[in-house]
Amino acid sequence: FFWKYCSTFDSTAEGNIGPVSEALMADLGASQTIYCPAFPENGRAIFMGNLFVGQQPLAESPMKDHPLTPMRDSNLMRLLAPQVRGAVGLVDRLTVAKGADAVRAALDALQSDGVAHVVTDAVAD
C-alpha cells in the first residue's frame, strides 16, 4: 500500500504524518511502514536519517528561521518519534546501496527488534 503524504517533514515538527500512518497501519493490519520523504530531483535527500535541503541539513537551511514553523532538527527519526507510539528506526544509505535483498533483511531485523516505523535514506532518484 502506498500513501503519498502531502504534509511535509520540513515545515513542522508537529503533524499528522505519524498519526495517519499508524491509523493506516491499523486498518491494513501492517506491523511496519517505511518513510522516505526524499525528492532528490527537487533538492530533498535523506542521509543517515537526516533531511537535507539542497546541500544543507534541514536545521541549517532557511527553514530553521521560518517565522511560523522553525525547523531546528534535521533528524527524521527524532521528528517522527513523538508522533507515533511504535519504535522508529533507520535503513541507511549503505544498506540501500546494496539492493533490495539487503533492504528487506534490514527491515526484517528491525521488525524483529520491534521497530514499526522505518526511515530510509535516499540520496538519488
Automatic annotation (TrEMBL):
It comes from the Bacteria. It holds the Pfam family SBD_N. One of its GO terms (molecular function) is kinase activity. The keyword Kinase applies. Keywords: Kinase, Transferase. Residues 2-124 form the Four-carbon acid sugar kinase N-terminal domain. This is Four-carbon acid sugar kinase family protein. It comes from Oceanipulchritudo coccoides.
